[in-house]
Amino acid sequence: MFYHFFKNVVLIPLLRWVFRPKVEGMGYLPQSGAAIIAGNHLSFSDHFMMPVMVKRRITFLAKMEYFTGKGLKGRLIAAFFRGIGGIPVDRSGKEAAQAAVDTALGVLERGELLGIYPEGTRSHDGRLYKGKVGVAAMALKSGAPVIPCAMIGTFEAQPTGRLLPRLVPITIRFGEPLDFSRYAGMEDHRAVLRAVTDEIMYAILKLSEQEYVDTYAAEAKAALRLAPPAAGPADRDLVRHGGHGGHESTNRPAAA
């Protein structure tokens, strides 16, 4: 009830009439039956923009933090994701992740659409990062086709930390369904899961035309947090003049 009210009364008028997203490849989406929609993840608004343009309901895997937020904002976000039937993903361990996979498989067994972001988290810099193999496991265990999807423009509209999206051109691009029936029964082979995931990510890459980074987004974010801060203008001036005395530094590489 909440899902249909929120989508049809709130989101559709707001997003279709105000943001006017352009949709390409809508014909690749099945009118019935199970399918996995695997997309890049650039912005919180991805959760709204793409589902609004698809007539069928899409159940998304969403990080646990969306369901446990504090304060008014946190409660509203949690209510929204619960209302649309979002599946919380606990990223703290393999057992928790397996529980999310099992729940997602139930969605597909019912012949519904499942939405997933294989990167596991939003891109912090607009690039496409390495996909996690959960999407491959779901595809092989369910036999459902995977439909690649690219969100274009949502990073510029609402990067991480921005509360309200800007009015910029947004395109939602669907690609040809990917069939992995040739790998049936091989869902326990790590190499197969990696190959299937990489094929999915390559299809997303072709649609989005992003720069690709062969590392996980979460690892890239962690490395960025641990990196030393860039030198400011005062620091660079200090290095250039060799310290507070204003003399040129003698701490140089030895001459060959």
Question: What does this protein structure show overall?
Answer:
- The protein is α/β, with parallel strands linked by helices.
- The chain has nine helices and nine strands.
- The longest helix has 19 residues, at 190-208.
In short:
This protein is of the alpha/beta class and 256 residues long. The protein has 9 helices and 9 strands. The chain has helices spanning 2-19, 46-53, 71-83, 94-109, 134-142, 154-157, 190-208, 217-226, 233-241, and strands spanning 22-24, 35-39, 58-63, 87-89, 113-116, 128-129, 146-152, 171-174, 212-213.
* Secondary-structure element series: HEEHEHEHEEHEHEHEHH
Low-confidence stretches: 234-256
Major β-sheet strand ordering: 1-8-7-2-5-3-4
Secondary-structure class: alpha/beta
Query: What separation lies between the terminal Cα atoms?
Result: 76 Å
Largest sheet: 7 strands, mixed
Mean pLDDT: 82
Count of beta strands: 9
- Tell me the fraction of residues in β-strands, as a range: 5-15%
Q: Quickly count the helices.
A: 9
Percentage of residues assigned to helices = 40-55%
Rg estimate, integer Å: 22 Å
The coarse silhouette is globular
